Amino acid sequence: MSEYWSDRFAREGMIWGDQPSPTALRAREWFVEQGVQSVLVPGAGYGRNTKVFSSDFVTYGIELSGAALELAAEWDSKTQFTEGSALERQLDFRVDAVYCYDVLHLFLAEERRSLITASLEQLRPGGLLYFTSFSDEDPNNGCGRQLEQGTYEYKEGKYAHFFSDADLRTHFAGTEIIGTEVWEETLHSLQGESHKYILREIRARKK
Ligand SMILES: C[S@@+](CC[C@H](N)C(=O)[O-])C[C@H]1O[C@@H](n2cnc3c(N)ncnc32)[C@H](O)[C@@H]1O
Fold it and tell me: Which residue in 40, 47, 110, 181 could disulfide with 95, CB within 3.0 to 4.6 Å?
């Protein structure tokens, strides 16, 4: 996984452009309302979304790819990035909120559990979770070889898990689920290409 992303970041640079996801802006609004002071972003990439948070909150990013982190250091110097796996606890303290954009669907079931467990371990009781991932309404759902229930190798060598509402809620059982939503997102590369896909997001609170 690390090699795949590092090769892409080294080759393509800011793969998804320099604009944040609208979900990061929505998360920031919610975090401000709730008095959040610190935010963790697992799978932070090159800092496209951390930059939304780092002007208002103390922000920490965890990212596996060194190539992404080289870009991130330039793009968002206010966030404190850690190179390592978001499937394990990396911070030895707890934050007020976790925002995680399109990372959860990259993994098979056991690793998805590890990502959520590690995120909860680094979140204070009462802290907020905002996760996005592919929805089962996305056209790639069901394409290619099925690896596990809901997980497909939809492009050669690339797989993702596609979440139904019930499945996403089951992943976050044990938290207080505040709501879920389906969201159509358009990604724009710096080269002017765009790609639409359908996400499912969840907002929850750690009990
Ligand atoms: C689809 S990209 C999303 C990047 C970022 N959230 C954004 O929207 O710009 C997935 C990211 O997760 C990172 N990643 C994959 N596995 C990881 C892991 N185990 N720990 C931390 N980051 C990981 C990849 O290197 C890549 O940056």
Answer: 40
